[in-house]
Amino acid sequence: xxxxxxxxxxxxxxxxxxxxxxxxxxxxxxxxxxxxxxxxxxxxxxxxxxxxxxxxxxxxxxxxxxxxxxxxxxxxxxxxxxxxxxxxxxxxxxxxxxxxxxxxxxxxxxxxxxxxx
Length: 117
Prior knowledge:
Blueprint: H1 2-29, H2 34-39, H3 45-55, H4 61-73, E1 79-80, E2 85-86, H5 87-116
Antiparallel strand pairs: 1-2
Helix pairs in contact: 1-4
């Protein structure tokens, strides 16, 4: 039984790593320069280069990926340009309502599904 659980945990780690890597690659393949998109069309070339340097976009893709994985493993999810704060600060207040929604939906599914089955 312990061997089965260990195999499932290792499989989960591999799948999470695969999804994270795929997401990184897909975001890098999107058209356009993130710095230009963030700053808008009226930004000067110096401002764009400064933001690219700050975001690490001037490094090659392998260095960017290594920084990305390192930051994920240390709990640094980056900075949200949309909300103007760290991503972890955006996520944390929403965890408990998400758990409540998940548990209530499981409860409804069990209440309806078990008698129907």
